[in-house]
Amino acid sequence: MATVLSEAEREHFRREGWVKVSGLLDCSVAELQEAVDLVAALPKGGEWLHHFEMTDFGPALARTENFIACSPLLAAVLVTGKIRVGAGELLGEEALLYKEKINYKLVGGAGFAPHQDKPAYPFVNKVLSVMVAVDAATLDNGCLQVVDRHHATVLPQDDRGCIEQGLADTLHFHPMELAAGETLFFDALTPHKSASNTSLLPRRALYPTYNAKSEGDLRTAYYEEKLKAFRAPVDEGVVRLSLIQDFEGRPV
Ligand SMILES: O=C(O)CCC(=O)C(=O)O
Q: Cα separation of 170 and 155, whole Å?
């Protein structure tokens, strides 16, 4: 049967906890960037969620989530396109979109503390994290940094839901540079982190998350749960982007 991932790519994912793949984008990089610009320009207050951070250059958009209803092109890329098919090949059954976000990491945008994604994903067990590079991701602009062969268990966490600092300091994180348009599939248990964007250009990335169809269509339930959690008060100085507090940005 025809597959979008090769056996070598699937084996790399199983062994290392991640795999980088090109050729899965169902549009050009320019079209992807234009679609992301349109989402960023949506006004505040719709069903999509914009999140802002303060940078040394002023307030900046940090993340938008829940936007596929507003972007036919991004819906095609994330829902009907090859990326979801590839996610299904790694999950071992058809994949459904569980949630989607754009991390903009504009100039001066903050990084993320060492964490695993799974603790931030309620209702699901067979779940997969994905990054699609909208701009090239480099060490300078705060690309992801991942740990190989460390995707078997949930690691001890601190009270933010991030990996305990003492343990994180012993892990070998290595940079995961990507060309614009490349896709990184990574296990929801693969430890990762990123630094701030010290370059002069944005480092935008799409992050769809997929779950196995046998666990149900949980996207609506996820966003309801998230909005409920976000109504609770947040500690001063924290920008809450996620159900864990991995984001290191400053509030506006
Ligand atoms: O975009 C990044 O630099 C890291 C994102 C991340 O780890 C997350 O959103 O959980």
A: 12
- Which atom of ligand 1 lies closest to the CA of 144? 3
Q: What is the pTM of this model?
A: 0.96
| Pick from 14, 234, 206, 215: nearest CA to 122 | 215
**Hey, where are the domains in the chain?**
7-230
* Residue nearest atom 9 in ligand 1 by C-alpha distance: 103
Q: What is the pLDDT of residues 202-242, one digit of tens each?
A: 999 999 999 999 999 999 999 999 888 888 888 888 888 88
In ligand 1, which atom is closest to the CA atom of 129? Answer: 10
Indicate the length of the chain as a whole number. 252
Q: What CATH number does the domain located at 7-230 have?
A: 2.60.120.620
DSSP state of 205: E
Residue with tokens 């990491």: 105
**Beta-strand relationship, 183-187 and 18-21:** antiparallel
Alpha-carbon separation of residue 170 from 18, 163, 164, 173 (angstroms): 20, 11, 10, 9
Residue whose entry in the numeric block shows the structure tokens 């993320």: 112
What are the tens digits of pLDDT across the range 182-201? 999 999 999 999 999 999 99
Q: 37 C-alpha vs ligand 1 centroid, how far in Å?
A: 19
Does residue 199 contact residue 111 with C-beta atoms inside 8 Å?
Answer: no
